[in-house]
Amino acid sequence: QLQLQESGPGLVKPSETLSLTCTVSGGSISSSNSYWGWIRQSPGKGLEWLGSIYYTGSTYYNPSFKSRVTVSLDTSKSQFSLKMSSVTAADTAVYYCARRPLSTVTVDYWGQGTQVTVSS
Amino acid sequence: QSALTQPASVSGSPGQSITISCTGTSSDIGAYNYVSWYQQHPGKAPTLMIYDVIKRPSGVSNRFSGSKSGDTASLTISGLQAEDEADYYCSSYTTSSNYIFGIGTQVTVL
Predict the structure, then answer these.
(1) To which H or E segment does residue A93 belong?
(2) Using a CB-CB distance cutoff of 8 angstroms, which residues of chain B are in contact with residue A22?
(3) Which helix (H) or strand (E) holds B102?
(4) Contacts of A64 (CB under 8 A, 6+ apart)
(5) Between residues 33 and 62 of chain B, which touch chain A (CB distance below 8 Å)?
(6) What is the pLDDT of residues B58-104, one digit of tens each?
(7) Pseudo-torsion of CA A71, B39, B64, B52, nearest 10°?
(8) Do B57 and B66 form a contact (C-beta atoms < 8 A)?
C-alpha cells in the first residue's frame, strides 16, 4: 500500500521560503505510472493544487503559483519536495503531498497533511 | 481560475439518497471527463470516492455514484449512512492544464 508522509517546519516567517518534503513508501517514486504533487487547504481558499512532478523531472504548476513554487524529486531518498518563496499570512494552510496516476487526472493517494503557519 | 460551485450543505435521513451538484464551465467540467469526488472527515486527508466522472476506486462502496451533464457533475449517495457524514469536494482538470476544486459540501445525516 502506497504511503506518503509530509515533513517540514510548521512555522515560517513572512517573506521567507516554505520548504516541505514528502517521503514515499510502499512503492517506487521512480515509477512511470505516477505524478507526485502538492495540494494545500485553507479555510479561505479551500483546496488548491500547487504543482506536480513526473519521474523524468518534468514539472507542472498552477499558473497562480508558478512564480513562487518549485517541486523537485530526489529518487535516491524516495522523496519529493516543495519550495514556496515570499510567503505571506495567506499561505497559512494544511499542505498535502499526493500522487496522481499516469492513466488519468485524479489524486488517489494523499499524505496525512501538515499544518504550516506563516507568522512573525 | 475560479473554484467549482457546490452547495454549502446537503442533508438526509439514514437510508435516503442525496445528490451533490458541482457546477463549472466549458473550460473545465464541460471540456473533459476528468471529474473526481473526494470525501473528507474532520482532521483527515481527503479520500478519493469517484474519478473519471463515474468510476469508483477499489474499496469504495457502490452506494456512491457519479454523473455529468454539460458543465455540471453530480455525486449521489444512496442508502445514506451515519459514516457518510463528511465534507465532499469535486475537482476537474481544465483547458489551461490546471486542476481545480469545488468549495466543498457538508453532508449531514439527520
Answers:
(1) strand A93-101
(2) none
(3) none
(4) A48, B1
(5) 34, 36, 38, 44-48, 51-52, 57
(6) 999 999 999 999 999 999 999 999 999 999 999 999 999 999 999 99
(7) -20
(8) no
